[in-house]
Amino acid sequence: MDNRIAMVSIIVENGDSVVRLNEVLHEYAEYIIGRMGIPYREAGLSLISIAACAPVDRINALTGNLGRLPGVSAKAVYAPAKRRS
Predict the structure, then answer these.
(1) Quick one: pLDDT at residue 84?
(2) The domain containing residue 73 runs over which residues?
(3) Does the pLDDT of residue 83 top 70, yes or no?
(4) Which backbone phi and psi does 76 adopt, to 5 degrees?
(5) Which of 29, 41, 74, 82 could link 63 by a cystine bridge, Cβ 3.0 to 4.6 Å?
(6) How many domains does the chain have?
């Protein structure tokens, strides 16, 4: 299966989910290109961006596992697929 490049946006509203969130990200570490996290203390949440390169099913599994955590929302946006000649 072909790899796709994607950005995964994560909003964390429940600080109690952070340990499990990091465990999930560790499970998918081989696909993660980079990560940026921004604590937004005034709003009581954290914003995380993940750059990933993986098969679509793995990226969907990552966002699904993250989205099932209490107080965590995750969505993926994919770069256009390369066309084959």
Answers:
(1) 59
(2) 3-78
(3) no
(4) -115, 145
(5) 74
(6) 1
- C-alpha 55 chain-centroid distance: 14
Helix (H, G, I), strand (E, B) or coil at 70: coil
Which two three-digit tokens encode residue 66? 């993250």
Helix (H) or strand (E) holding 32: strand 32-40
Task: Give the SS3 label for residue 28.
Answer: coil
Q: Are 31 and 62 in contact (CB under 8 A)?
A: yes
CATH number at residue 49: 3.30.70.1150
What are 8-38's pLDDT values in tens digits? 999 999 999 999 999 999 999 999 999 999 9
Q: Is residue 65 a contact partner of residue 72, using CB atoms and an 8 Å limit?
A: no
> What is the Cα–Cα distance from 85 to 83, expressed in whole angstroms?
7
Measured CA to CA, the distance from residue 69 to residue 65 in angstroms comes to: 7
Amino acid at site 30: E
